[in-house]
Each structure stands twice: as C-alpha cells, then as structure tokens.
Amino acid sequence: MQFMLLFSRQGKLRLQKWYVPLSDKEKKKITRELVQTVLARKPKMCSFLEWRDLKIVYKRYASLYFCCAIEDQDNELITLEIIHRYVELLDKYFGSVCELDIIFNFEKAYFILDEFLLGGEAQETSKKNVLKAIEQADLLQEVRHLIKITVDKVF
Amino acid sequence: MPAPIRLRELIRTIRTARTQAEEREMIQKECAAIRSSFREEDNTYRCRNVAKLLYMHMLGYPAHFGQLECLKLIASQKFTDKRIGYLGAMLLLDERQDVHLLMTNCIKNDLNHSTQYVQGLALCTLGCMGSSEMCRDLAGEVEKLLKTSNSYLRKKAALCAVHVIRKVPELMEMFLPATKNLLSEKNHGVLHTSVVLLTEMCERSPDMLAHFRKLVPQLVRILKNLIMSGYSPEHDVSGISDPFLQVRILRLLRILGKSDDDSSEAMNDILAQVATNTETSKNVGNAILYETVLTIMDIKSESGLRVLAINILGRFLLNNDKNIRYVALTSLLKTVQTDHNAVQRHRSTIVDCLKDLDVSIKRRAMELSFALVNGNNIRGMMKELLYFLDSCDPEFKADCASGVFLAAEKYAPSKRWHIDTIMRVLTTAGSYVRDDSVPNLIQLITNSVEMHAYTVQRLYKALLDDISQQPLVQVASWCIGEYGDLLVSGQCEEEEPIQDEVLDVLEGLLVSNLSTPVTRGYALTAIMKLSTRFSSVNRIKKVVSIYGSSIDVELQQRAVEYNALFKKYDHMRANPNPNIAVITIHASNSTEADMTDFVFQAAVPKTFQLQLLSPSSNVVPALNQGTVTQVIRVLNPQKQQLRMRIKLTYTLKGSAVQDLAEVNNFPPQSWQ
C-alpha cells in the first residue's frame, strides 16, 4: 500500500497515512485530486479505479470514505477486507464508531492503524491482538483521557 | 501563564468557525501561542501542543515549526510524549529534510528499550518513513529483533526489514540468516509478515528465489492447515481462517512456482483444493479465489487446473458484485493471449459487460472484446462493438473507433462490409477518430477499386445528412474529388446527383462554420479535381478565384496555385497528368500448377518515381485460366525514356522461384 486517506463527503481530510516519501506539496495535490475523483463516483460504480499508475480501492462507511492506493501486484479484493478490518478495529475501540470519534480522537485512530499496518502491510491478522496491544499501550500513557467529549451539536 | 488549551477543546473551538477566514484567525492565534510555548522550552505541555499542531496540519495549515519539537518528544522518557512525537515525525518529517537524521539515535535507543511498546513505536516509524541513511545505520538493530522470540516485536521487525531492503537493496543479504525458521512460527502475525518479507526478497533477487524454493512444501502445509482446521475465532473472517495470510501465501507460491516445474507440481493439489473448496458467498472468499486464479495462471500448472481457473473467472463475470466482475475482466485481459480458446468460451458474458454501468468495467470489457475478435466471430462481434460505439461515453469513442478499424482491417469478410463498417464508424463517432485515420482510410478506399462507385455514393449521401464530423467530411470530400465522375455517371443504382448539386455540397463545406481549415483544404482541392471530371469548369474557376483572397493562408495558397493551373496549363486539360504514365500489367501462367505467393516488384532509374497499387490477387491460376492484374503509376517529370527492372517471385509446386528481367521496350507514348 502506498497511502491511505480518510475523508468526509464534503472532502474534508480526517486521516492521511503515507507509506511513500513525498513532499507536502505533492501530498496535498494528490489528496485534492483523488478526493475529487472519488467523490465524483456514482453509488453504482465499483470500488476500484485506476488513477495515474496506481490502483485505488475505496469504500464508504457512513459519512467517511476510506481510500487506499495499492500497487499493481496487490489484490484489490483483500484490500477491501483490510479496510473493513480497520473499520472493525475502530468500531471495537470507540464503541460503535462515528466520524466525530475520528475527528476528536484522530491521534488514536493513527495509533490503531499503526498497530494494524506497518509500512503499508498488515502486521497482525488477529483483531483481538491488535486491540490488546492498543489497550496495553494506552495503559502506559501517563495522562489518561477518562472523559469522552460529548458534543451538543453535529456540524 | 495559563496552561495551553487541551487538544479536544481546540478541535471543538475550531469547528465552531463559520467561515474559512474565522478558522484561519483561530488557527493563527493558537499557532502563535504554541510557538511561544515552544520558545519557552516547556516540557509539560509540549506533547499537547504538538498534538494540536498535528490537528491543524491535517486541516492544511503549515506546521514545520513543530518538527524539532517532535524530536524532543521522541527523546523524552514519557511514553505519551514518545507516542505523539513519533506520530508527529511520521506526519511532519520526511527524508528530504536533514532534520530527520537527528531521529536516528533516538530510534536506535528505543529499538533497545525495555518496554516492547516503545520498541514497537521505533520499528513502526523506521518501517514507515526511514530514509536510506537511517536504514543503513539501523539495519543491524532490525536484524537482531528479527531473531527475537517475542512475536510482537518479531512481526514488526519483519516488515521493518522489508522497508530497509526497499530503501537499501544491498542490505538484503544480512537478513538471510534470520529468515531461517520464520515459517515455523505459530503466531499468525509473524507468519504473515514473514511471508511478506520472503516475497520481497524473492522478487528482488533470483538467487534468493532459488534459495527459498525449498520452502514450497512448508508453505503448502501451512495453507492446508488454514483450510482444513476448524473454526478459529481469533482469525476467522466469515467462516474463513485468516484470509490475509492465505492470500499472501498464494502470492508467494506464485513467485516460487513461476518457471519451475517441480515447485508448480508441488503446489498443484493445494491450488485445486483452494479453488474448489473456498466459500464464494462473500468478498473474502472471492479474494482468495482471485489470488488463487492469478497463481494458477502464472505458474506451470497443468491444463485442467488452468481451465478451472478460467471457469472461476467466468463465474466471477456473472457475479452480482461489480467488484468481482471488475477483477474478473482484469484477469481475463491478462490471460487472453495465452489461453485464448478458454477465454473465448466466455465471450458472450464479456460482451454483456459492455452494457455495464461502471466505466472501468466497460473499458475492460471493450479491450477484452477486441482481443477476442477473430475471423469466425467478426460479424457478430462487430455488431455489438458498433452498438457500443454508438452509445458509449466520449472517453471511449476514440479507442473504440481505432479498435474497430483494426479489427475490420484484419478480419473483414468482404470489401463491402469493410467499407460499410468504416462508414458506420465515421457517421457515429466521426469526431473522435484519430487524425491518421483519414489518410489510412483514403488509402484503403483507393485500393478497393471495384468499390469506388459504391463508396463515393454512400459518402455523398452521408454528407447530405451531416457535415459536422470532420474526418467523415474530409474522406468524403477526397472521394468526391477523386471519383466524382462515378458519382454523377449513373454507375450507382440509386438516383445520382447532377454536377451542380455536387458542387453545391462542396461549396457548402467551404463556407460552413462547422468546417475546420483542414476540411476546407480538402473541399477546395476536391472542387479543383472535379474541373477535370466535370464539365462545369467555369463555375469551378470562379470558386477557386474567390478563395485566392481567403484569410486562411493555406486555402489562399491552394487557390492561387489552382488559379495558375487554370491560366497557364489550361491546354493540358485533356490530359491532366501528362507526367504520369499508367501501366497495367497482366500476368498469366501456362504451367500445369498454380503460382502462389506471386509478387511483382519493379525498380526504375533515379529520375522516375514509382507507385505500385495492390494486385488483384497473389495466385496466378494454372493453364492460363486467369490473370493477375496490377496497376503501376510512373511519374516521369523529366520525360526520359522509361526503363524498368522487374522481379517476379512466386511458389510453384512447392519450390520458391525468382525471375529477373529488364524491360526497355515501352511505347514512346508512355513517356513522351
């Protein structure tokens, strides 16, 4: 995997994980173009598209698009499963996850992703083990966020 | 100095901004506060401030002033600091900046930390963004961790090693010893990452590939256990045990089995087993089948297995899930050359995919359809493809038109069908055909001598309907100019136009807003050519003289030159091209056997130019039962005596024959 992007239906970036070295300017350009391309897709279209020399795999979960760029030899169908596994992990961790969780706890979303994937490949195929590792690491944190922020307005 | 506001508080505040300007103001204010906090070297809140900076960075605001702070966080003893510090490094730093090298020492220390989660952070960061220099410095540490018994670290070290190898391929050798017993691990995480590492090594080095071939039996065994083992809740996905690992093993087997008979044989059974036993109701099962098919097609599998694979793809094509249809078409496109007959069996399903709503599926179906066209199915396939051309999105039209032309050229069952097909393309997708189509088509039409009348009539009629499609208009203009005499002479069955009507049409092209300058050039030249075929020479003279003062330089130049022809060379009208001699050769064969592969070649002295049109056939029938005719046009501007060296080659009774001769006795009228 070369990179993974999470963005809302309005095109707002919620997470960006890059596994290839690119300048900030290039990342911004790629993000802008790709987000535009994916948002323009109609619901009946398939989850794969060719973009530049990459294969793009994307799937929408509620208000968030999960978008991965994979290489030629990578299996598109299993990438869908990778995306799904990540969503499941987020869901288990946050308890019925929604976009707001990712917005307010973006650093945790990254920590979870980094326990699941490393260098663009899956490092752990057991859901249980990923969650256990995050749990243990959270315990090591010197400052614990015990209170979940409640938001009285949804934007 | 009050404590800096908390991260979530900041997020909430920024989200209340109603305009971009309001947001920018809030961000600038907070950045200023963060900057001064950094200047004060505040250790307590550094973590909080960097986290806020990362949020603002995600919104698109610059955060480079936080780079060094990330390094300070990484160097801190607190786990919370390290966690945010490493995250910040991965988001804000990249290998182009020298500052990233300052991380190297910290990472080295953390790779040896007593807490595995700290070691994990270091491995993750190195494996995600480590530069070549960092990788060189730290490869030894990674290699050490690759041999640890701690599976949490071992799996991360394996993927980190993959990154190191990608950045510094020369270091691959040093990881070889550590791979020795990687596959004996029970831990799936380690197994998965080990397979990824082995795959990377095999892809990069033929020596490694040869070395790791001996792992095939072990890989087969692991795969077999995954399939045969009962329900394992930890790794189960919709009833399938660790599909991620299965897919990676299949991919490694593909690499190991390619071009190797023994390995391919060793994996034959397991591939057949996976192909037949995998549950196909969900995406996860199909993901495994897909990888299996790719492997079967790439290794030296027996034909039964290959047919099994193609049939799986055929079933994929009928799947409701469009993602599955998409990968099926992609895979079939890869195999259509090598397993052409097997893929042909699914032709009708593939053609149905032309009507799919998804653009990517349509494109693949189109490419595959063209790959499947042959002499037997050309009529049926062309019907479908022309229908597709009619209704497809503009982005496809150019490629589809080219494909149709190519297929028609290769497999046209008759000249008339060929020309009709071209006409159809020009009328339905005329504006999308490539520029070189026009001269190619003109060439094709020229060579189909017996079709000239039919072609010019059809093209003329098409012009009456629509003059907006430029390639069509250009080809039509050229043909009318060339064969206008046939158009008005009553050679066609239908009502033929009269000369003035034809000239009306061509003049209409000259004045129309729809015509491009190139088209106008064609039209003007055609009108000029008709001056030798039609009797309305005065009308043509008038038209040509008007365009002598055209704004379009190209048009003006042509008109002026044509005008000159009218003035200076009018006396040559009867013989429009005195410098060209047209010679027709007739070849006959009095022997008992047919002459096949008959080719006539000619060479002329330097001052001449030669054009050989296509022969009527390349078989000269035996016993004078028929002749082969061929037209030669010779340009002789210096009016020199015509001489020719000819060469005949043909096959007679199985042997190749070559005949050379000189021809010097051309009648003087042909060159004087």
Automatic annotation (TrEMBL), chain A:
GO terms for biological process: intracellular protein transport. InterPro entries: AP1_sigma (IPR044733), AP_complex_ssu (IPR016635), AP_mu_sigma_su (IPR022775), Clathrin_sm-chain_CS (IPR000804), Longin-like_dom_sf (IPR011012). It holds the Pfam family Clat_adaptor_s. It is a peripheral membrane protein. One of its GO terms (molecular function) is clathrin adaptor activity. GO terms for cellular component: AP-1 adaptor complex; clathrin-coated pit. It comes from the Eukaryota. Its main location: membrane. Residues 1-140 form the AP complex mu/sigma subunit domain. Keywords: Coated pit, Cytoplasmic vesicle, Golgi apparatus, Membrane, Protein transport, Transport. It is found in: Cytoplasmic vesicle membrane; Golgi apparatus; Membrane, Clathrin-coated pit. Belongs to the adaptor complexes small subunit family. Subunit of clathrin-associated adaptor protein complex 1 that plays a role in protein sorting in the late-Golgi/trans-Golgi network (TGN) and/or endosomes. The AP complexes mediate both the recruitment of clathrin to membranes and the recognition of sorting signals within the cytosolic tails of transmembrane cargo molecules. Adaptor protein complex 1 (AP-1) is a heterotetramer composed of two large adaptins (gamma-type subunit AP1G1 and beta-type subunit AP1B1), a medium adaptin (mu-type subunit AP1M1 or AP1M2) and a small adaptin (sigma-type subunit AP1S1 or AP1S2 or AP1S3). Binds to MUC1. This is AP complex subunit sigma. It comes from Amphiprion ocellaris. The gene is AP1S2.
Automatic annotation (TrEMBL), chain B:
Coiled coil: none annotated. GO terms for cellular component: AP-1 adaptor complex. Residues 552-667 form the GAE domain. InterPro entries: Adaptor_Complx_Large_Subunit, AP1_complex_gsu, ARM-like, ARM-type_fold, Clathrin/coatomer_adapt-like_N, Clathrin_a/b/g-adaptin_app_Ig, Clathrin_app_Ig-like_sf, GAE_dom. It is a peripheral membrane protein. Keywords: Cytoplasmic vesicle, Golgi apparatus, Membrane, Protein transport, Transport. SMART domains: Alpha_adaptinC2. GO terms for biological process: intracellular protein transport; vesicle-mediated transport. It is found in: Cytoplasmic vesicle membrane; Endomembrane system; Golgi apparatus. The keyword Transport applies. The keyword Membrane applies. Belongs to the adaptor complexes large subunit family. This is AP-1 complex subunit gamma. The gene is AP1G1.
